[in-house]
Design a protein that fits this description.
heterodimer; A: alpha/beta; 51% helix; B: alpha/beta; four-stranded mixed beta sheet; 12 strands
Chain lengths: 462, 214
C-alpha cells in the first residue's frame, strides 16, 4: 500500500488560517492570470503556447548542441562556463572561488535551482554568509523554511508571523504593517548589497545564440545582485537553454502572465558576460554554472522528458485542487504542486514517496494552464504505472484484490452467483471498519435485485 | 572525465546518439507585428505606465524639460547619466544634478545617497510602459536602480510598440552590451499576504518625460 502522510495533510487541512491563506493567494493568482491571457488582452495566447512547446521540444531534443553553442558564446563575451554534475560540485566551485577572491558575503536572488541543491546550507557550513534578497525568500531564510510556492515563497505566512520573525531575528521593534516591514528588509538588505563580494542568481532563460542569462523579477534584488558585487555567478539547470534571443518574445509574453498576470515583470534583465570596455558599472567576473543534478536522467524517456520544458511559472500549483488544500510543504521536495508531482519521482526514483503521482484527481487543470503545454496528467498516469510496476513483487492487498477480481470476471458462474448473493445480503452487511469510514460522506452503491443478465434472459423469453 | 564531458555524453546517450549533430532548422522566430498606428504610441505608453503607478509627462521640445524636471526634483539631490540626450535637454549644470561619472566607485557612492536617478532610455515600449536601458558609457546600471526615484527622459522617436518590436530591432542585445534591462513600472512586491508594496529594492517611483519633437 502507498504510504500517504495523512497526518501531515490533516494538520494543514485542520488549520483554517492556513487554508484561507492558500485559498486566497492562489485565487488571486488565478484571477490575475485569467485576465492577462483573455482573448481581448492576448489574442495569440494559444498560438504562443503551441510555439513555446515546439521550441522547448526542439531544444531539449538537441540539448547537447545548444549547450555547446551557449558555452562558446558566453566565453566569447568574456564569461566562464562551469558544468556541475551535483550540488556538491556547485558548492565546491563557489567555495573555491570565494577563497581565491577572499570573499565573505554573498547576496542571492531567488532561485529554485539553488533551493534544490541546498546551496545556502552548503556555504554556511564554511563560514560564508549567504543572504537571500527576495523579500519572500529573505523571510523564509530567517525562519529556516523552504519555499511554500514556486513564485510566492512565503505565501503561508501572515504579517504577524513576519512581525514576530523580524523582531526575534533582527532585533527590531514589532512592526505589523507590510509596508514598514518591507522598509526594514530594504534597509537591512541594502547594506548587504553594498558590501557583498559575490552575487548569485538563478536564470529564467539561457540564450544559446547570445551567451546570455535572462532574469525576471519585480523587486530589483536580482538587478542589484548582478550589479553591485564584483562577481556574478548564475546557477542554472541545463534545461533552461533556448536557442535565440528572439524566442523570448514567445516566452516572456507567457511567463509573467501565467505567473502573476503581469504582461512583463517589473525588471527583465538580459545579461551576458562581465562589464565591457567603456561600461561604467557591472561585475568584473561572470560565471555561468550549468547544473545536471539528475536532469540527464529525465531525458531518457521521450515522453517524460517534456517535464524539462517547465519555465517555473507556478500556474499549475495555483489551479491544482490538491495543492490548494494540502499546500506546498506537504510535497516531499522543493518543487510542489503538479509539476513537483511529476519531476520529484523522476529525480528521486518512483519508489520514494510513491504516493506522489497518485495525489491528483487528474482533473487536467494543470495541463490547461501550462504555458509550455506539458501533459502533466498523462505523465502522472505513466508514473503511476511505474510505481505499480516497481511494487509488482510486493504482496499487497490491492494485488490480491485485482487477482480475485480477474478470477470472478472470467468465471461467469461465479460472477452470477456473487451477484445473486450480493443483491440478497449486501444491505445486511454491517458498515464497520474501512467501510464505515468510506460511507461516512458517501452513499454506498446498491446492487440491483435483478442483474442485467437475468433481465436480458427474461426479456428474450417473453 | 570532466563534468562537462560527462554531462554532454549523458545527454547524448539519453537522446540515443553518438556525437553532436546539428539540429534540423528551427522554425523562424514568432514576432508579432505591431498592429497599431505609430501616432498612438505616446498615448498608449502613458496609459500603460500610469496603470503601474508610474507618471508620464509629455513635453513638445527638449527645452521644455528643465521646467518639468525642476518641479519633480523640488530641490532634491539627483544623479544623472551621461546620455547625450540629457545634455540636449539642458541638464548639464542643472541645479542639484550631479553627472559625468566614469568611475564605478564614485558613481556607486553618489547613487547610494541620491534621492533621484535621471537617465534617458534606449527605447520605450508602448504596450507595457517599459523603459529599455542598454548599459554602456552613456548609461550606467545603478542610476536607475539605487535611488528611490527614477526619472527617464526619452525622445518620442525611441518609442516602439512592444517587446516583439524591440527584439526585431535588436535581435541580439548581447552583441551591444553586457546588460539590457526592461524596466516596467516601480519596483514592487506582494510577498507578504499578497499586499502590493512599491519600492522594495529598486525605485518606488518611476517618472517618464517624453519629448515629442526629438
Amino acid at each position: 500500500m502507498l504510504d500517504v502522510p495523512m497526518d501531515r495533510f490533516n494538520q494543514t487541512l485542520d488549520d483554517p488560517r492556513l487554508q484561507a491563506a492558500i485559498y486566497s493567494a492562489t485565487q488571486r493568482l488565478i484571477d490575475h492570470r485569467a485576465g492577462a491571457v483573455a482573448g481581448d488582452r492576448l489574442p495569440d495566447y494559444q498560438a504562443l503556447r503551441t510555439r513555446a512547446n515546439e521550441i522547448k521540444k526542439h531544444t531539449i531534443e538537441n540539448l547537447d548542441y545548444y549547450l555547446e553553442q551557449l558555452e562558446s558564446n558566453v566565453v566569447a563575451h568574456g564569461g566562464q562556463v562551469v558544468f556541475c554534475r551535483t550540488g556538491d560540485e556547485v558548492a565546491d566551485f563557489v567555495l573555491d572561488l570565494a577563497k581565491k577572491r577572499n570573499a565573505r558575503l554573498i547576496v542571492k536572488s531567488k532561485s529554485m535551482t539553488t533551493e534544490e541543491i541546498h546551496f545556502n546550507e552548503h556555504l554556511e557550513r564554511h563560514q560564508l554568509e549567504t543572504v537571500e534578497t527576495d523579500l519572500g525568500e529573505y523571510i523564509l531564510q530567517l525562519a529556516h523554511q523552504r519555499p511554500y510556492h514556486i513564485v510566492a515563497p512565503a505565501l503561508h505566512m501572515t504579517r504577524y508571523d513576519v512581525a514576530d520573525l523580524f523582531s526575534n531575528t533582527l532585533g527590531v521593534p514589532k512592526e505589523v504593517e507590510p509596508e514598514n516591514q518591507t522598509k526594514i528588509a530594504r534597509a537591512t538588505l541594502r547594506e548587504k548589497f553594498l558590501n557583498a563580494d559575490i552575487g548569485v542568481t538563478g536564470a529564467n532563460f539561457l540564450i544559446a545564440d547570445s551567451g546570455a542569462v535572462v532574469l525576471v523579477e519585480n523587486e530589483g534584488n536580482a538587478r542589484l545582485s548582478t550589479t553591485a558585487p564584483k562577481i556574478h555567478i548564475a546557477i542554472a539547470g541545463i534545461e533552461k537553454v533556448i536557442p535565440r534571443a528572439q524566442d523570448l518574445a514567445v516566452f516572456l509574453n507567457l511567463l509573467g502572465r501565467s505567473a502573476t498576470g503581469q504582461p512583463l515583470t517589473v525588471y527583465t534583465s538580459f545579461l551576458s558576460g562581465p562589464r565591457r570596455a567603456g561600461e561604467i558599472d557591472g561585475p568584473d567576473e561572470f560565471y555561468l554554472v550549468l547544473l545536471d543534478n539528475g536532469r540527464t536522467k529525465l531525458l531518457r524517456d521521450p515522453e517524460k522528458r517534456q517535464s524539462l520544458y517547465c519555465i517555473r511559472c507556478g500556474a499549475c500549483l495555483n489551479h491544482c485542487p490538491v495543492y490548494r488544500k494540502i499546500g506546498g510543504h506537504n510535497y516531499p521536495w522543493v518543487y510542489s504542486g503538479p509539476i513537483g508531482a511529476i519531476i520529484t519521482p523522476q529525480f528521486h526514483g518512483v519508489t520514494q514517496d510513491s504516493w506522489l503521482p497518485f495525489a491528483s484527481s487528474l482533473c487536467g487543470a494543470c495541463a490547461e494552464v501550462c504555458p509550455v503545454k506539458i501533459e502533466i496528467p498523462r505523465l502522472l498516469l505513466k508514473l503511476r504505472a511505474e510505481v505499480t510496476e516497481a511494487n509488482r513483487n510486493k504482496a499487497s492487498l490491492e494485488r490480491w484484490g485485482f487477482g480475485a477480481w480477474a478470477w470472478v470476471m472470467t468465471n461467469p458462474r461465479i460472477f452470477r452467483l456473487l451477484g445473486y448473493l450480493g443483491a440478497k445480503f449486501w444491505p445486511m452487511v454491517p458498515k464497520i471498519g474501512p467501510l464505515r469510514k468510506w460511507a461516512r460522506q458517501r452513499e454506498l452503491p446498491r446492487i440491483a435485485p435483478k442483474s442485467f443478465h437475468t433481465l436480458w434472459t427474461e426479456r428474450r423469453r417473453s | 572525465m570532466t563534468a562537462r564531458d560527462q554531462i554532454l555524453r549523458d545527454i547524448r546517450t539519453a537522446l540515443g546518439r553518438a556525437g553532436c549533430a546539428s539540429p534540423a532548422p528551427l522554425v523562424a522566430p514568432l514576432l508579432r507585428n505591431p498592429q497599431m498606428d505609430r501616432n498612438l504610441y505616446v498615448q498608449l505608453f502613458v496609459q500603460s505606465l500610469e496603470k503601474l503607478a508610474g507618471k508620464v509627462f509629455v513635453v513638445p521640445n527638449p527645452d521644455a524639460v528643465p521646467a518639468v524636471l525642476g518641479k519633480l526634483l523640488d530641490g532634491k539631490h539627483a544623479v544623472a547619466s551621461n546620455a547625450p540626450f540629457l545634455k540636449t535637454c539642458g541638464l548639464e549644470g542643472f541645479g542639484p544634478v550631479q553627472s559625468g561619472f566614469t568611475d564605478r566607485e564614485a558613481l556607486r557612492a553618489a547613487c547610494a545617497t541620491a534621492d533621484v536617478g535621471i537617465t534617458s532610455a534606449d527605447y520605450a515600449l508602448a504596450e507595457t510602459g517599459s523603459l529599455v536601458m542598454l548599459s554602456g558609457a552613456e548609461e550606467a546600471r545603478l542610476i536607475s536602480l539605487l535611488p528611490p526615484v527614477h526619472v527617464a527622459i526619452i525622445p518620442r522617436s525611441r518609442l516602439l510598440a512592444n517587446l516583439d518590436e524591440l527584439l526585431a530591432t535588436i535581435p541580439k542585445p548581447a552583441d551591444q552590451t553586457s546588460s539590457m534591462v526592461l524596466i516596467t513600472g516601480p519596483s514592487r512586491t506582494a510577498d507578504i499576504e499578497q499586499i502590493l508594496i512599491r519600492g522594495v529594492h529598486g525605485p518606488g517611483e518611476v517618472y517618464a518625460v517624453i519629448v515629442e519633437n526629438a
